[in-house]
Amino acid sequence: MQQPPSPQALAGVRVLDLSRVLAGPWCTQTLADLGADVIKIERPGSGDDTRAWGPPYLQDGEGHDTSEAAYYLGANRNKRSLAVDLSRPEGQALVRRLAGQVDVLVENFKVGDLARYGLDAQSLRAEHPGLVICSITGFGQTGPYAERAGYDYAIQGMGGLMSVTGERDDLPGGGPQKVGVAVADLFTGMYATVAILAALRHRDATGQGQIVDMALFDTQLAMLANLGSNYLCSGKAPGRMGNAHQNIVPYQVFEASDGHLIVAVGNDRQFAKLCDIAGRPDWAADPRFATNAERVRHRTVLVPLLEDAIRQRSRAHWLAALEAAKVPCGPINSIAEALADPQAQARGAVVGMEHPLSPALRVVASPMKLSATPVQYRQAPPLLGQHSDEVLRQAGCTAEQIAAWREAGVIA
User: Fold this and answer.
1) Cross-strand partners of 82
2) What count of Cα atoms within 13 Å lies in the side-chain half-sphere of residue 26?
3) To pair with 233 at 20 to 30 A between CA atoms, which of 51, 183, 359, 396?
4) Is 15 strand, coil or helix?
């Protein structure tokens, strides 16, 4: 007999998702993975912008492109889609009705835009004091930049990340670089998830909801982490270090005889083991290199010595020897290699889901491993308006009302 599915931590929590692109959908997908019922509100006809952000697109059973972009599929599983025209009074009334039936509303409209529809946080909270509303914008609800649109790329630049990402200016290829994925969006989505869960905890204790004001710019500043702290303690802004670490040496990419590898020495014991493997135990005893602080100060002396030594042998030799000695190291994999790695396979990093347009949809799994309330992959990223009738019937709307709204173009 098939066992019933395990309970989920957020079962019973309902979320109205008025967000699109990445930061908001990443937040709501995380909530959905944990068991929340997420209703994704989309514009009839086009839906979330990322549905068209391809190629690549999902392919059907015959290998032909469908209408669903891979970008969209990466951030919208476990949700239901309701296509509603918010420019119409009937559509606005529908969303206000739904807002009274959920626990959380997430939106990433520009500051002030939802007020035109009577869907701004203050209006909704006045009517539904237990509602948790999370607004995600580029710069937040206050400050001189509040009305600006915010995009991950620009935020990475404005928030200091690109000043510490990329090769040094004095080396070939030097200059600012963005990170390869939209980290400001993704971090904001994760911080928003944490804040929403905290607000729900408060709501459960007091009955009162609240407004969560999340900004990509604020998040980017926070995620500078140790580099922001470096500046505040020293008064000196860190610069770009390429693949090296600001505070630890050796902690960077090295070139072996047949390829590159990462060596990430985290303490003096590990450094001594590295020196033994390199056949140079004298380096660990050298006062210039004996402690991390001295290695950082004498980086320009030590690193060339290590480069010469590592270049003499193959990548496989170094990886095997370093792993055996428990010195942190690793290869530099492509995404294909990373997802095919035995560890990724063992951890279930890729999950298959049944999609209406393809039986072979695969998605990158959630990294959250909960022993009692595991993540479940209940539903593939929805087609535009796939659940409009279902959601509206559950909201108490009649078949006649739904048919009339569809005929008038209010829903799809």
Assistant:
1) 41
2) 18
3) 183
4) strand
Residue 209, CA atoms < 13 Å, CB-side half-sphere: 22
3-49 residue pLDDT tens: 567 789 999 999 999 999 999 999 999 999 999 999 999 999 999 99
In sequence order, the 6+-apart residues with CB closer than 8 A to the CB of 64 are none
C-beta of residue 61 within 8 angstroms of C-beta of residue 359:
yes
Nearest one of 296, 207, 317, 285 to 251, comparing CA atoms: 296
Structure tokens at 176: 């600012």
- Active site residue ranges: 185
**Backbone φ and ψ of 147, nearest 5°:** -85, -5
Residues forming beta bridges with residue 133, ordered by sequence position: 105, 211
**Cβ contact 222:275 at 8 Å:** no
| Strand partners of residue 358 | 355
Which H helix or E strand runs over 358?
A: strand 358-364
Question: In the chain, what are the domains?
Answer: 14-223+345-408 (3.40.50.10540), 251-334 (3.30.1540.10)
pLDDT score for 7: 86
What residue type is assigned to position 406 of the chain? R
**Burial (CB count <10 Å: 0-12, 13-18, 19+), residue 205:** exposed
Lowest-confidence pick of 77-81, 162-166, 170-174, 404-408: 170-174
pLDDT above 90 (res 1): no
Q: What is the C-alpha separation between 339 and 361, in angstroms, rounded?
A: 15
DSSP 381: P
The amino acid that residue 235 corresponds to is G
**What phi and psi, each to the nearest 5 degrees, are found at residue 365?**
-70, 160
For every residue of 95-154, which 3-state class applies, written as one string?
HHHHHCCCCEEEECCCCCHHHHHCCCHHHHHHHCCCCEEEEEECCCCCCCCCCCCCCHHH
pLDDT, position 360? 84
Structure tokens at 332: 């530099």
Report how far apart the first and last C-alpha atoms of the chain are (Å, whole number): 40
Residues facing residue 41 across a β-bridge: 82
Write down the pTM of the prediction: 0.92
pLDDT tens, residue by residue, 374-400: 999 999 999 999 999 999 999 999 999
